[in-house]
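Quick one:
INPUT:
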């Protein structure tokens, strides 16, 4: 059996120290950000490209150099043409087969014969082609995951969460990696549909025929039979039971969100779901009506949902509060942390951060 593992390469920047970034290129082609409610310049010259997470932005400057900005400092990383990936807290790049990361202000080489890798928020799985092995980088440490004499298949999938992941070895033994430790799920000659969130995993257990959750190092049977659909967030899971009820499980307790759900989605701290033609958001144990219609165009992250209104404007729900951002049509939007960046048609920007609307 091929080893199914998912690569996540991540550079951890502690949230207590993170400044946060909301990057954009304005009409002057200046590269800017908003930090703690203040507009700042990252570069005054045009840049070639950038990719950002909540707390980092990596970019290629006008000279082709790779740089990272962490909300406070701008750091040069490489002057070579290369590929890079970024998560909310980690930055990884490779020069040929050499794989490197940026972590808490430090550069580190992970391998000289690197293969595939995938970034998540706080962990990374990466391949060493010389030894045909897979390792994990999490919380500043490297952990061996798998060595194989056969073929290793590396891909991103719902089995990989932001701080947790599930995988199967050659013999079909499924394990879960969580906070530096391995937990055995069991042997199964086939695929198990693990849905991993930030720190929790849900799955239909093929051996016990129950619906189970791995939560804080413990396996719990949430339902005594398989459920129809499920997704994981941060410390909770949402699922449709056999009777099509939409349920949420958190801290050992479960409750119903809707007896007649339509489409629904989960990411980080929020749940977006339809009920009788209305759209609701569940956050921190409370449900609020987001719209009296079905929302089609939206993005979710952390405790925030941003969506296009029926009239074509942009509204947000941030930690349970409904906020009208703009009535202008054809606006684009992104989420960084719980800040919202809205790009208007005239190349102006709106940034909602810490309860204030900033124009740039």
């Amino acid at each position: 059996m091929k080893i199914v593992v998912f690569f996540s390469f991540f550079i951890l920047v502690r949230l207590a120290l993170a400044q946060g970034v909301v990057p954009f290129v304005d009409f002057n082609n200046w590269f800017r950000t908003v930090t703690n409610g203040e507009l700042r310049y990252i570069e005054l010259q045009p840049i070639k490209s950038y990719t950002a997470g909540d707390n980092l932005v990596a970019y290629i400057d006008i000279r082709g150099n790779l740089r990272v900005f962490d909300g406070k400092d701008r750091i040069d990383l490489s002057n070579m043409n290369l590929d890079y990936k970024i998560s909310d807290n980690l930055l990884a790049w490779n020069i040929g087969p050499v794989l490197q990361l940026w972590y808490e202000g430090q550069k580190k080489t992970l391998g000289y014969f690197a293969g595939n890798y995938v970034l998540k928020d706080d962990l990374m799985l990466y391949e060493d082609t010389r030894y045909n092995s897979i390792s994990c980088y999490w919380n500043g440490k490297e952990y061996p995951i798998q060595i194989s004499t056969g073929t290793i298949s590396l891909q991103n999938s719902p089995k990989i969460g932001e701080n947790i992941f599930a995988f199967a070895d050659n013999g079909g033994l499924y394990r879960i990696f969580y906070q530096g430790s391995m937990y055995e799920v069991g042997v199964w000659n086939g695929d198990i549909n693990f849905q991993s969130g930030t720190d929790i995993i849900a799955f239909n257990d093929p051996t016990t025929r129950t619906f189970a959750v791995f939560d804080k190092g413990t396996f719990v049977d949430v339902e005594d039979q398989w459920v129809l659909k499920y997704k994981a967030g941060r410390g909770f899971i949402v699922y449709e039971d056999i009777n099509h009820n939409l349920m949420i499980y958190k801290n050992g307790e479960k409750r119903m969100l809707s007896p007649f759900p339509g489409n629904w989605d989960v990411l980080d701290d929020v749940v977006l779901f339809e009920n009788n033609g209305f759209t609701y958001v569940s956050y921190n144990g409370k449900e609020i009506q987001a719209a009296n219609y079905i929302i089609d165009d939206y993005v979710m992250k952390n405790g925030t949902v941003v969506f296009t209104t029926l009239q074509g404007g942009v509204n947000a729900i941030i930690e349970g509060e409904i906020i009208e951002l703009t009535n202008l049509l054809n606006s684009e939007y992104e989420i960084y942390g719980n800040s919202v960046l809205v790009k208007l048609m005239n190349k102006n920007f709106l940034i909602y951060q810490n309860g204030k609307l900033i124009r740039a």
